[in-house]
Amino acid sequence: MEALIVLLLFLLAGAIALVVVVVKKNLIMSDQREQLVDQIEESLDVLDSCFHRLSHNAEVNVLSDEPVIREVMSDIRRSRNAVLAIASKVVAYGSEPEEKDDE
Fold first, then answer.
1. Is 7 a residue whose pLDDT tops 90?
2. 3-state secondary structure string across the chain
3. From CA 87, how far away is CA 41, in angstroms rounded?
4. Domain segments of the chain: what residues?
5. What pLDDT was estimated at residue 14?
6. Residue 91 — very low, low, confident or very high, per pLDDT cuts 50/70/90?
7. CB–CB of 56/85 below 8 Å?
8. Model confidence over 22-67: pLDDT tens digits?
9. Do 84 and 65 touch, CB atoms closer than 8 A?
10. What angle do CA 101, 48, 31 make, to 5 degrees?
11. CA distances in angstroms from 9 to 19, 22, 87, listed in the order given
């Protein structure tokens, strides 16, 4: 009987130690998540300003019919669309469920 109590106490101590480690790691990951969200928001602000410049440049009519210039303009448009697609996925992934309902 005493051996069973000692074993149960040992398992309880192990479980408590494991919970402490998991909680510490969870807090660290939560801080890292907050830093990641802040970095993503800053990056999205930079991408937004670049998008506005690219959008303006993509709308400008090109007077040259050279294939290289047309290809560059096409690449700018595709890049703009790719940035928008990525930004929309990141914003949708990072938002809380309550924010989705408000929209």
1. yes
2. CHHHHHHHHHHHHHHHHHHHHHHHHHHHHHHHHHHHHHHHHHHHHHHHHHHHHHHHHHHCCCCCCCHHHHHHHHHHHHHHHHHHHHHHHHHHHHCCHHHHHHC
3. 10
4. 2-102
5. 95
6. low
7. no
8. 999 999 888 888 887 777 778 777 777 777 777 677 666 766 667 7
9. no
10. 65
11. 15, 20, 51
Name the pLDDT band for 95 (thresholds 50, 70, 90): low
Task: State how far the alpha carbon of 44 is from the alpha carbons of 35, 68, 84, 95, in Å.
Answer: 14, 30, 10, 14
Rounded Cα distance between 37 and 30, Å, is: 10
- Pick from 98, 38, 51, 43: which is nearest to 79 by CA? 51
Asked whether 49 and 71 are in contact (CB, 8 A), the reply is no
